[in-house]
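Box 3.1 A note on notation
Throughout this textbook, protein chains are presented in two layers. The first layer is the amino acid sequence; the second is a token string describing backbone geometry. Keep the layers aligned when reading.
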Amino acid sequence: MMRPNRPIYLDNHATTPVDPRVLAAMRPWWEENFANPHSVEHAMGREAEAAVEAARAEIAVLIGAEAREIVLTSGATESNNLAIKGAARFAAAQGSERRCIVTLATEHKCVLESVRDLAAEGFEPMVLPVRPDGLADMDALREAVDDRTLLVSVMAVNNEIGVVQDLAAIGALAKDAGAIFHTDAAQGCGRIPLDVEAIRADLLSISGHKIYGPKGIGALYVRRRPRVRLAPLFSGGGQERGFRSGTLPAPLIVGLGEAARIAAIEGLLDTGRIAGQRDRFLAALRAEVPEVRLNGDAERRVSGNLNLTFPGPVDAQAIMAAAPEVCVSTGSACSSAAVEPSYVLRALGIPEAEARATLRIGIGRFTSPADVDQAAAALAAGWRHASAGN
């Protein structure tokens, strides 16, 4: 997929490349049938509507849902905002006395900020610490979640350290307390098996560009039985069951549907192949930098993630500058403007100096053995160069 002489791309948690099959599926809906899928009075509009509904069904299959439970959005940030704020505001409007919203300190910024925003509306945010391996402290969750809890939001897979939370146990805990359970599954869909019934999710967020689909499209699963009610974030024509107004972008939706279809069929194959590339990369890097440390639980993690602290004193930015042929990151793309070290790593108890010496490696569907070999050598050389400068 990559053009010759292009950098080696190992930042697949920030975004994945669009699969060529996804691009091919989208193209006719820009060039041949560009109709508004809501214009069902004519043939082209009805064809676009049918394509949207077919894609909705593919998205539902990926997570074990019904097609009518899928609400299409602009991406996981909107889905997370709609899930958390929408559930809280609807409950408050109905006079619910439940005001507590429980989440973890390592959640994506859009979840943490959504929860904190609700404090100004009289809700009670409860942001719990995690264990040093990045996994939820189930004892702390059991103590926090009670009959005052309105919603529990825990992400499926952490976007920085790649750890996989025990969603089934967390979902059961929330249900036992009568709370709504939401999971941000942007990094989990297509990378781990997800079934909304098995994990007892009421709300689940999806992002297209994390599963080799286009940017600007996502979805929110909203359970129908028992029914979960949400207040919409903004007003309009009442599309998407009244949850999300606005004209649906048919080409992007078709792309998300095709990406979901491929993930449902090829997910296990992808996982095994990517895990092999990950292990190959780590072995090659450790041959050159033996003291490099893996952050997060070593076993309960997605196959393509490595969050690595380099021995110091050294700065991760300096390593990247010395290895410009490799595209990696220091953490979440949504927090890349921050000058402080990753709040996720700080939540694990990692000292600031070590957090600043940490890189996130994201191996994906199109990463080759040559890519990982060259990247490991380049980053090892970059580390030596950066270390020599200190």
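The two ends are 38 Å apart (CA to CA). The domain at 20-261 is CATH 3.40.640.10 (Aspartate Aminotransferase; domain 2).
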